[in-house]
Amino acid sequence: MDEYQQTIRALSDRIVQAQTPIRVLDAVKWDDSIRQGFLKAKGKEPPAVSREYYQNRPLSFDSGALKLEFQNIERDITRQLGQFNPVGQIMRRMCKEYRMVVRMLEARGTDDFGLISQELYGAASDAFHAGDPTLADLGLMLSDYLNNIDGRGDLKDEPKNLTAKEAVEILQRRLNKVFGEAEETIRVFESDGIVADAAAGADYIKIRADAMFNSRDVRALEVHEGLVHVGTTLNGLNQPICTFLAKGPPSSTVTQEGLAILMEVIAFASYPSRLRKLTNRTRAIHMVEEGADFLQIYEFFRAQGFEMAESYGNASRVFRGSVPNGLPFTKDLSYLKGFIMVYNYIQLAVRKGKLEQIPLLFCGKTTLEDMRTLRQLVDEGLVEPPKYLPEQFRDLNALSAWMCFSNFLNHLSLDRIEADYSNIL
Q: What does pTM read for this prediction?
């Protein structure tokens, strides 16, 4: 490396090191005693979570010292790279975001937690573009579509007859084909310590030991957690200079989750009940933004047909870090919001003939606003193109053909089509 590259690498490494103790989901989660108390009361009393609950569970780091560290890194970036250096601008924004994340975690149990969450992840009432529908509108629209097909017996989910052990074996075998069996690049294993059915790390996927799966679930995990989340992390770890691409602040969460949902769709790995889960989360967040409390969200999920325990789990996702009558934690908006944003980006890249920028979504924990800069950094040799790419993005022929048609179809009026087709459908 030359001196300029070494400077970028040193500053990048400082960001990676500084963010290490930040574990957002660990800091905001409710322990099992809260769930047990809620279920014991038969869902008639709100969970016993207050500001004091979080104060009795202190953060695993000195928040004041960490904010100061990010401030110092940001100042050194400007001193050493200048105000307008492209890499410096990305790294400075990351420092600002991480400081905001620390402020959000300091504010657990207060309204400030929810307000900062909206700054980082967005709100359900946000529009995509001027005059466009909001995320809340999208959630309701998708729910209507799903209701129309819900009664069909042939679209019911298959029985969950695969154990965690069987799911691990299938996933490991499939991902070895993508990431290389000899290198043991990715590990899949069972775990007792997670709330979700599965969770991805830097080079592994954990499967909850007592969870059951069907073949569609496993395919979705392969695409979502494996090809996208682990793949982008490994590509970020493969960066010799811009090491910050291995770690993702909240702005990259929206892009990453959107990319993962898009991959599910174009790999034909998604299905109606999975989409229902995403729309329900968006609708629940919007309801809380409009004033609903925990018990109302719990009843919303009960009305969707979920059992008590699952309804509690779904509702607690919306309120983790907050209190039962507080503002929502809006991270779960990332899925649908990110999907729309990434889809639009790829569609526009095809329209403008900039296909070479599409695979760069996978070169690490990227954000859409940095894509033009990343193209420049690849040309300068500061960023490595992604080593691991799903086949749908390795050969862009099919994807670009689909997007060409999609660009045209966007100009057609679905209401007019519905009226014209009414006598043949």
A: 0.90
